[in-house]
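Final report, Chapter 2: Outcomes

The project's central promise was a pipeline that accepts a single protein chain and returns its three-dimensional structure in a standardized token representation, suitable for archiving and comparison. That pipeline is now operational. To close this chapter, we reproduce one record exactly as it appears in the project archive, with the input sequence first and the structure output second.
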Amino acid sequence: MSGDEWVIGIVGGSGLYAIDALEDAQWIAVTSPWGEPSDEILCGRIGQVQVRFLPRHGRGHRILPGKLNARANIDALKRAGATDILAISTVGSLNEELPPGRFVAVDQFIDQTKGRASSFFDTGFVAHVSMGDPVCPRLSRFAVEAVRAAGGEASEGATYLAMEGPQFSTRAESRLYRSWGADVIGMTGMPEAKLAREAELPYALLAVVTDWDSWRDSEAAVDVGEIIAQMDTNGALARRAVEAFCEALPANRTPSPIDIALDDAVITNPGMFDRELVARLDRVAGRLFARNGKG
């Protein structure tokens, strides 16, 4: 692969377990020092764009949101050659302007998850990446345009409240999150977005609204049946949007500032690096080691 080639990692959320348009498709097991990824990675191409597809919950939706090994998933995608990540996630709406059936490109997060491993870095190798702007605007713009090209309705910009789950919100919680300025709510966007930034992978999250969460007194509380019905309606559109996304990418990938997100993030003196942790970071931070002649 050339240095200016797109290799798009697709993280498929609820209802997106395969990509129909993928050519030369092959499931490949990728081993990660961070544990087991959710599944093998489906490698192939859409047109001239290489694709690495990972079903976030595993084929058959086997894994709870709080049990996802997001570190292994992001690391495995980078080991498989991904240069960028487009994540697809189902969400509940906290905003009247985002009805069920709408797609929206998330641009901010409020992280309310609990106890999930949220960083590749630890004692012996400390790094603090910037998350002020947590997604890649270039990818987000392409994603919104792709949904519209596929015949769907898509909005730009929303704040995603990441909750722990697996239970859905109480009505009081749903109203509280609205008062914080959250627009949509889901269980998987964090720490996935944080880890993608640490791995220097530009990341966009295309959220698919399936329900109104629980804040509307006039609506029944959200249940799985409602979500599955909306997933079935939007699944084909999501797959077409992924195809349109890849087909519309520029022929050459120009660099992103996120490609070098670790340049100003590492604070530990190199002489004090924990060697075991450095070994586990061989792909996540491998660019830094190669630049500095350390390994």
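Archive annotation: The chain has a mean pLDDT of 92.
This record, like all others produced under the grant, will remain available to the consortium after the project formally closes.
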